[in-house]
Design a protein that fits this description.
It contains 2 helices and 14 strands; from the N terminus they run ββαββββββββαββββ. It is globular. It holds the Pfam family PTS_EIIA_1. Keywords: Kinase, Phosphotransferase system, Sugar transport, Transferase, Transport.
Length: about 160
């Protein structure tokens, strides 16, 4: 019974896939800003359809004005950026329909963004979608990427934060 009240054991955070597809290491993303971890630790998914869902329980920090990226704050303080495709800022919001707004509370698997993958695939450099922990540098936490190769949105853990 007393163990119930003990403090100090840090909780791990599971970050789930925000979209269905093939899981890639962040180093495999064909963009140095992501592959060289300039924005932080992470992983990526090469989508094979479906929409973008929340990878964690938390709240929406930002929906980019061009709708191609969403920033989240997980309940444990981890900041996560979901960047849909590469060079997608140039699409000026076309192909994206946000289902959330800044300040909204979200839970794992909740719809964040509807994506027209055909349009994005035809008009962007790539559909590869990095999931970056923007406050990972200097955090003292460990980030372990899954060995899984296939992601199911809202079900497959792609990163574990300890």
């Amino acid at each position: 019974m007393l163990n119930f009240f003990k403090k100090g054991k840090s909780q791990a955070l599971d970050i789930y896939a925000p979209v269905n597809g093939e899981i890639l290491r962040i180093e495999e993303v064909p963009d140095p800003v992501f592959s060289q971890k300039m924005m932080g630790e992470g992983a990526a998914v090469m989508p094979n359809g479906g929409n973008i869902v929340a990878p964690v329980n938390g709240k929406v920090l930002q929906v980019a004005p061009t709708k191609h990226a969403i920033g989240l704050l997980a309940d444990d303080g981890t900041e996560i950026l979901i960047h849909v495709g590469l060079e997608t800022v140039a699409l000026n919001g076309e192909g994206f329909k946000p289902a959330v707004k800044e300040g909204d509370k979200v839970s794992v698997g909740q719809l964040l963004l509807e994506v027209d993958w055909d349009f994005v695939g035809a008009n962007a450099v790539s559909t590869v979608t990095p999931i970056v922990i923007t406050n990972s540098q200097g955090s003292g936490k460990d980030y372990v990427t899954t060995e899984e190769k296939t992601a199911v949105a809202g079900e497959t853990v792609i990163i574990n934060v300890k």
